[in-house]
């Protein structure tokens, strides 16, 4: 067990559920072994197989990124004892859905500029939050953010501040996917990846881990920042902003205590201690 | 006794009324709208827009040149008004650059650069043009990163992008960060600029008016779109004359992606939460700055929400006919208008609303009303069913 490196200012919170989808990663159960494997199989496609509970209209209209987000959000809720309408949500994505931006910008090059009204309302960065709320009849506070490459860390920090101040469980969802050509190389993601964590201020009988997080000065951190222990995960982590969650997910896959650090904007860094139940 | 959540230490606003606070104040007082028929290049729509002049002439500092886009130009211009940069520098000197956070709302960030690149590329191109910088322009975070670097802030930063509530929600997030002790002060704001995506997008939904918008009028027929930037510096410590954030409420309609809940049920939830955070009753609010976009369904839904919670006496108005609907910057524009009204003791009329829709019950001000006010609510609602209500006031 690593010694406590410092006192954490924020109160401990409890991970009550996890959902994950990625290349060759179907769910948290299967991911726990994939994250420890030397050959995680990132050449495979992300598969959407869950029943997303969307009404027919919304199911037809929702973009692939929204469906991926709903799949992991659903897995996290279903693996917990909490209900979707009693939790707040934070959706974080570096880039949102660049496939929609591509379709709109392509339409805008045409004489009649035939922008699709559905594409337009899907283009908002909070589209995933909107579809999730509709699918779950969830009326609680919800935020949708971006911090570019630091989007996962800032999403987690946003979730922790909501939990501490509003005393409400928070469903954190991080998702990104590649942009289509010609935006592909300009965009920031080479993989489809999404993760959801249901984090509560209260410990249920089925909690998975205790998490303590804090914001510290970058120069105060000696340990490696961001990096995965399993080097086979690094290609995925480096090529998808949402996959910056991997060092934390890797820690959550192994029982015991871990301390990891994730970069944040400016001169700040997030330090996270997790104690994972056996 | 009212309790402050945070003090608004400094603020600045730029929109189609002009650059800086005094332009907004004078435009509102003199009943001069910032809306004009749309003459933007590459936009061929019969509509009125609220445009900020001179954005093409802005030149960013050399070391921030890769952030070059209309949205960051507007941010750069707006940050230089009202001594805002000096106020932020004082906070940096007091707390340290890494103890200040940046929370900026936007809906489309610098997507205009992507539109421009697509216009320029030959059909079937596989790469973007050499000059194109996705990460520093279109990426949603670009605006927050630009503001952070422009002000020399080294603390946590994020863009909040929840459509038209984006830059109202920045107040709530900043409050929570300060409450948790992660930072001592926050620069919050919102910036959105006119682009083809939003003009043609809203047009595709048949929500754009061919005339200047007329919120709450019986013959209202849609929105006028505008561009704006606003910034505020929030801290715990107040000066003698500070305006304070007293309450905030956030909720989700869970009803439809682009149409509000017809009864405004969850707008009511956001307003109730804001009152409860502030420890106030509906009768403690002197004036409501409506979201008031001027579409049939938005105004009808908000009207039901207001009437059910506040009744039909409380003075209300929409300021959208002055600035246009500034989308991701609407929250901050109207929150800071609310601070202006508190500071200068007046409640503005709902411009262009000559005759109120007889089916709508809220008390819409058809004339400017000058009198001291102590507490103002500002509403912001958006696509995806996102709702945010804020309460500002003095502590006296």
Main traits of this protein?
A: alpha+beta; Peroxisomal Thiolase, Chain A, domain 1; eight-stranded mixed beta sheet; 9 helices; disordered N terminus; B: 396 residues; alpha/beta; twelve-stranded mixed beta sheet; three-stranded mixed beta sheet; 11 helices
Short description:
By secondary structure, chain A is an alpha+beta fold.
Name the CATH homologous superfamily of chain B: Thiolase/Chalcone synthase
Helix content of chain B: 25-40%
Mean pLDDT across every amino acid position of chain B:
97
CATH third-tier fold name of chain B = Peroxisomal Thiolase, Chain A, domain 1
How many DSSP helices of chain B? 11
Poorly predicted ranges of chain B (pLDDT <50, ≥5 residues)?
none
Biggest sheet descriptor of chain A = 8 strands, mixed
Give the strand line-up of the largest sheet of chain A: 3-2-4-5-1-6-8-7
H/E element sequence of chain A: EHHHEHHHEHEEEHHEE
| Whole-number tally of structural domains of chain A | 1
Main interface by residue count = A-B, 70 and 74 residues
Query: Number of DSSP strands of chain B?
Result: 17
Description:
The complex is a heterodimer of chains A (278) and B (396). By secondary structure, chain A is α+β, with helices and mostly antiparallel strands. Chain A has a single domain (13-207), classed as 3-Layer(aba) Sandwich (Peroxisomal Thiolase, Chain A, domain 1). Chain A has nine helices and eight strands. Chain A has helices at residues 28-34, 56-61, 64-78, 98-107, 117-122, 127-136, 151-166, 234-238, 246-252, and strands at 13-21, 88-92, 142-146, 170-176, 193-200, 209-217, 256-263, 268-276. Chain A has an eight-stranded mixed beta sheet. In chain A, strand 7 and strand 8 (268-276) form a beta hairpin. In chain A, 58% of the residues are buried. Chain B is an alpha/beta fold and 396 residues long. Chain B has a single domain, classed as 3-Layer(aba) Sandwich (Peroxisomal Thiolase, Chain A, domain 1). In chain B, 31% of the residues lie in helices and 21% in strands. Chain B has eleven helices and 17 strands. In chain B, strands 1, 2, 5, 6, 7, 9, 10, 11, 12, 14, 16 and 17 form a twelve-stranded mixed beta sheet that branches. Chain B has a three-stranded mixed beta sheet with strand order 3-4-8. In chain B, helix 6 (166-179) packs across helix 11 (330-344). Chain B is globular and about 60 Å long. The interface between A and B is large, with 70 and 74 residues.
């Amino acid at each position: 067990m690593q010694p406590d490196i410092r006192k954490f200012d924020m109160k401990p919170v409890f991970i009550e559920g996890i959902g994950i989808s990625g290349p060759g990663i179907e769910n948290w159960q299967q991911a726990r072994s994939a994250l420890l494997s030397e050959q995680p199989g990132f050449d495979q496609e992300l598969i959407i197989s869950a029943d997303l509970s969307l009404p027919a209209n919304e199911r037809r209209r929702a973009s692939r990124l929204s469906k991926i987000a709903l799949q992991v959000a659903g897995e996290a809720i279903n693996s917990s004892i909490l209900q979707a309408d009693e939790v707040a949500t934070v959706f974080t994505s570096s880039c949102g859905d660049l496939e929609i931006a591509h379709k709109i910008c392509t339409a805008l090059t045409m004489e009649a500029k035939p922008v699709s009204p559905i594409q337009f309302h899907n283009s908002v960065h909070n589209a995933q939050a909107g579809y999730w709320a509709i699918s779950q009849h969830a009326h609680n506070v919800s935020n949708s953010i971006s911090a570019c490459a630091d989007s996962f860390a800032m999403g987690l920090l946003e979730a922790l501040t909501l939990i501490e101040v509003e005393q409400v469980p928070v469903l954190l969802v991080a998702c990104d996917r590649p942009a289509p050509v010609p935006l592909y190389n300009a965009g920031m993601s080479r993989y489809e990846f999404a993760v959801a964590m249901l984090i509560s201020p209260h410990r249920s009988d089925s909690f998975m881990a205790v998490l303590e997080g804090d914001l510290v000065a970058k120069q105060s951190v000696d340990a490696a920042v961001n990096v995965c222990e399993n080097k086979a995960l690094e290609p995925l982590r480096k090529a998808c902003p949402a996959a910056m969650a991997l060092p934390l997910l890797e820690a959550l896959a192994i029982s015991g205590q871990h301390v990891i650090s994730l970069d944040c904007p400016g001169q700040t860094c997030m330090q996270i201690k997790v104690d994972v139940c056996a | 006794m009212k309790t402050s959540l945070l003090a608004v230490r400094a603020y600045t606003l730029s929109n189609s009324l002009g650059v800086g606070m005094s332009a907004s104040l004078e435009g509102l007082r003199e009943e001069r709208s910032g809306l004009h028929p749309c003459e933007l290049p590459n936009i061929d729509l019969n509509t009125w827009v609220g445009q900020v002049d001179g954005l093409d002439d802005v030149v960013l500092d050399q070391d921030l040149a890769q952030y070059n886009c209309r949205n960051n130009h507007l941010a750069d211009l707006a940050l230089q008004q009202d001594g805002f940069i000096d106020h932020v520098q004082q906070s940096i000197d007091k707390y340290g650059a890494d103890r200040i956070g940046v929370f900026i709302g936007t809906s489309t960030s610098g997507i205009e650069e992507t539109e421009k690149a697509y216009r320029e590329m030959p059909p079937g191109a596989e790469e973007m043009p050499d000059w194109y910088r996705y990460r520093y322009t279109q990426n949603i975070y670009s605006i927050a990163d630009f503001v952070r670097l422009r002000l020399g802030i080294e603390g946590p930063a994020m863009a909040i992008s929840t459509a038209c509530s984006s830059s109202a929600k920045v107040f709530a997030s900043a409050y929570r960060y300060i409450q948790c002790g992660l930072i001592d002060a926050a620069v919050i704001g919102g910036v959105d600029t006119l682009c083809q995506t939003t003009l043609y997008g809203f047009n595709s939904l048949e929500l754009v008016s061919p005339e200047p918008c007329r919120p709450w009028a019986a013959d209202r027929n849609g929105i006028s779109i505008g561009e704006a930037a606003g910034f505020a510096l929030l801290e715990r410590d107040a000066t003698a004359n500070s305006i304070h954030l007293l309450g905030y409420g956030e909720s989700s309609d869970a009803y439809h992606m682009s149409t509000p809940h017809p009864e405004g049920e969850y707008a009511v939830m956001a307003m109730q939460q804001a009152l409860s955070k502030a420890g106030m009753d509906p009768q403690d609010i002197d004036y409501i700055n409506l979201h008031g976009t001027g579409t049939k369904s938005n105004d009808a839904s908000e009207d039901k929400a207001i009437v059910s919670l506040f009744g039909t006496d409380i003075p209300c108005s929409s300021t959208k006919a002055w600035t246009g609907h500034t989308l991701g910057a609407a929250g901050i524009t109207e929150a800071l208008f609310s601070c202006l009204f508190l500071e200068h003791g007046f409640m503005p009329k709902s411009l262009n609303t000559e005759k109120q829709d007889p089916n709508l019950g809220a008390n819409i001000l058809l004339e400017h009303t000058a009198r001291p006010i102590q507490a103002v609510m500002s509403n912001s609602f958006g696509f995806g069913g996102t709702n945010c209500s804020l309460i500002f006031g003095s502590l006296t």
